[in-house]
């Protein structure tokens, strides 16, 4: 007695009117690639002042560094010009950093330094 689906040589049953198609199976996530954040969850961001200029920092991605260390990609956007810089840092919670730490990260982004892991 057969259980479940159909065999390969069996024809497919035609879909009935109004019947939804069979949903596709989710693809497995490859190692080192994080799935995109859920749409309903806002992107973490912080605003701060450095050298008299207002900056907006957003987390724009997640990566894996050497040895599988989780890294966040931060994008620093200058509010008064079309200037931005990106920086990879070890995973952190943007909400817990004070303004002085953000200024240090911004200077590293301007110099193009990579984080020490």
Topology:
Layout: E1 45-50, E2 53-64, E3 70-78, E4 84-90, H1 99-111
Antiparallel strand pairs: 1-2, 2-3, 3-4
Could you list some keywords that capture this structure?
single chain; 117 residues; mainly beta; four-stranded antiparallel β-sheet; 1 helix; 4 strands; 29% strand; elongated
Report on the structure:
The chain is mostly beta strands and 117 residues long. It has a domain at 45-111. Helices cover 11% and strands 29% of the residues. The chain has 1 helix and 4 strands; from the N terminus they run E-E-E-E-H. The chain has one helix at 99-111; strands spanning 45-50, 53-64, 70-78, 84-90. The protein has a 4-stranded antiparallel β-sheet, covered by helices on one side. A hairpin with a 5-residue loop joins strand 3 (70-78) and strand 4 (84-90). The longest helix is centred in the C-terminal third of the chain and has 13 residues, at 99-111. The protein is elongated.
Radius of gyration: 23 Å
Distance between the termini: 58 Å
Give the helices and strands as they follow along the chain. EEEEH
Strand content: 25-35%
Structure described in brief:
Helix content is 11%, strand content 29%. It has one helix spanning 99-111; strands at 45-50, 53-64, 70-78, 84-90.
């Amino acid at each position: 007695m057969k259980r479940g689906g159909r065999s390969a040589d069996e024809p497919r049953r035609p879909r009935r009117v109004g019947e939804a198609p069979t949903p596709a199976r989710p693809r497995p996530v490859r190692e080192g690639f994080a799935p995109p954040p859920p749409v309903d969850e806002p992107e973490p961001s912080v605003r701060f002042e450095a050298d008299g200029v207002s900056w907006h920092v957003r987390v724009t991605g997640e990566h894996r560094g050497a040895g599988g260390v989780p890294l966040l990609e931060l994008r620093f956007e200058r509010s008064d010009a079309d200037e931005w810089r990106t920086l990879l840092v070890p995973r952190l919670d943007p909400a817990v950093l004070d303004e002085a730490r953000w200024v240090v990260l911004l200077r590293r982004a301007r110099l193009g330094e990579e984080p020490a892991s």
